[in-house]
Amino acid sequence: MSNAMADSVSRWRTIVPWMALVVIALVLTASLITGQVITPFWNVTMVLVAVGVAVYSRAVNGIHAIYGVVMTVAVLHLVLSDAQRDIAVDRPLTWPEMLGDLAVAIGVVAALGFSTARRLGAPAGRYLVEVAVVFIGSSIATWVLLTQPLLDQGESASRAFVSSLFLPVTVLVAAFVVDLWNHGLRRNRAMQLCALSAIVFAAGSFAERLQLVGTVDVEGSLMGATVYSLAAALVLAAIAHPSFRYHLDDRTPAPTDVGRARLLIMGVSVLGAVTLTAVRPPDGPLDIAVRVGATVLLIVLVVVRLAIALHEHEVARRSLHERVHSDELTGLPTRTRFVEVVGDVLESNWRSEHQPTVIHLNLDRFKNINDTFGHHGANEVLSEVARRVAEAASSFGATVARIGGDEFAVIDASTTSVDDAVIHAEVLRAAVSRPIAVGEAPIFITTSVGVAMVPAKRSITAEELLRRADIANHRAKSDGANRVAVFDESMQDNVAKRMDIEHALHGAIGRQEMRLYHQPIVDISTGRVTGFEALIRWQRSDGTIMSPATFIPVAEDTGMICEIGAWALRDALSELRGWIDDGVVPPSTTMSVNVSPRQIADPNFASIVRHALSVTAVPAHLLWLEMTESMMLDEPELAENTLREIRAMGVQLALDDFGTGFSSLSLLQNFPIQRIKIDRAFVQGIAENTNDRSLVRTIIALGQSMGLDLVAEGVETVHQLQSLRDLGCNKAQGFLISHPVPAPAMGSTMTALAELSELSLFRATTAGTDRVDIPVPVPAGAGMVGMSPRGPIGQPVI
């Protein structure tokens, strides 16, 4: 079927029921005005609606067909009974007429009840009991308030029977509508029609009750019969509407308030029945029998409902216990269960010669497998790894658990020494390292292993032993992965120090503990300052100065480096702006700021750079962003897109520590780099080491051929500086020129550097001379400018 034809069919399926409702409304209006039912026209209309919905329902799906057939039978029966009714004569209802009305009631209850149970996803038995409780409770109330008084007044049994039935049915319909309404279907057109049908049905029932007790005249009967038909037609229209299928297909767990509303309706029904039975005394043996029988049935249903609730609670408890203690994917114990097993092993081996060991396995680079093969392929790998680890562990009687997404743990009670533990850990690592077939592609996976043994002659808890194995696993990861690390006390000390640094880092910027120092970059040929590199220093509140090598890795791992890096960028540019405005440095002076891999991976990093340039009013070409090759290799596409966006602003990019990695040359081709910084490791040996000198010469020649700016880092001696100039390097920085200095000392530093540029420091060396450290006079107030012996160098930290 073409899309146009399908749209046309769908449109007619929506329009036809509404057209039928319009016709019914006209017939109803004419009937009320004339006081008579236009029987032929009414019957034809209802038959067409019923048959049309039945055909439509059968064409949609089986559930729709059930509702359609039930409602069609109900409406046809109503039409036949209406044809036998003599509206002009006030007479008791006949059995065919009662059956017609009952068919409508059954159809309405069936349509709403079945759809409610399906929508809420409630178990059939439980929901049936709940419906029965509401029905019996409201029936008892109806019997006490209406049916028995009617019988006492001499009404016929048939009329009393009808009055006993329709009010409980109305309560059921209202309960179904409340359930569906509270289940998020207030805007569903089909459910709006069902709710309208319930209201009309309740009005019809009320009118029929008034007619039965003689409160209204013959028009009351007319209204009752006609309103029942209208209620049935509204349900038919709801079934025919396209949104009806949605509420059947979209089966979601019932919210808590729906269950509470249902329990409230049950409670009101039971309480009303019990209260009326107790307050109003019985009248005769029949009344006693009906009350006792109905009350006993109600109590039985309530007990059954409680039994079902207890059974469901027990099933849920067992299911929860199973999920908590058994991993769904691998079938291995979970972490919760594993802690219990470890506790049992520790207790059973107390005072024995064995030292139980926990072995923690964490798969290396598992995210790459998940990204490559998807969730299903990754689950296959995990299942196979679990099988292999369990098989290998069984060889020495150990128990395996899956304690995380790609983490497994083993408790080995057979070890008596560290050597035993390491041998068993290597067995597990080797089992994982064998190739695994995912589809038709074999993949290789490695694992980092942490080992923690129970201390000799010392008690330890299961959680503490697992924590130690986790610490050892982290050490194995940081040492290069795919290896075994055994826990020792120094690891725990390192973890404690790391936690201290991590806690102290939070709010360090707000407490103004972070400071920027700036190391000048000079032009080798002239000795003039061309720019600065901003370096972070952290002075904690107790006065302790933390090395960048200590706190920067922690900031990287926790993500706080993004906040620190954004602050450093703004502060460095603000200080450069101030120096330029105050005439401390020329307007062409640049500022270099180091950025981390986490910053490059941040989608907002380009916006952060743009904002920093905007608020400081520093021209974009004066900003250099320095980065290492590792950040560009981890996420090459993201890095390339981010860097090209930044480069489009006019910001210049530098590749730091050039020559120390494996991919530096390819990065120059793939990324928009304008500067390479020669690593200090090569500069240190340029004067004595022929290989270092040859390598630096090659780097300089490469940079010159590509039109790149060249900066040598870590220059500490005159000989190194002169060798760099002889090889053609453009710029240099290092302790020979200046230590990193704080911003307030920049004025005196620039004065000292201006005097330094006039000395023989920047003149060509005499052939054959050895390296000489030439004393350089340092003017007062020059800060940390001047010669320095070889030693620790102020390194870039972000």
From TrEMBL:
One Pfam entry name: EAL
UniProt keyword list: Membrane, Transmembrane, Transmembrane helix
Ranges annotated as spanning the membrane: 12-33, 39-56, 63-81, 93-115, 127-146, 158-178, 190-207, 222-240, 288-308
Domain GGDEF, residue spans: 354-489
Domain EAL: 498-754
InterPro entries the record matches: Biofilm_reg_signaling (IPR052155), EAL_dom (IPR001633), EAL_sf (IPR035919), GGDEF_dom (IPR000160), Nucleotide_cyclase (IPR029787), Rev_trsase/Diguanyl_cyclase (IPR043128)
PANTHER family xref list: BIOFILM ARCHITECTURE MAINTENANCE PROTEIN MBAA, DIGUANYLATE CYCLASE DGCP
Designated name of the protein: Diguanylate cyclase (GGDEF)-like protein
Protein's organism: Ilumatobacter fluminis
Taxonomic path: Bacteria, Bacillati, Actinomycetota, Acidimicrobiia, Acidimicrobiales
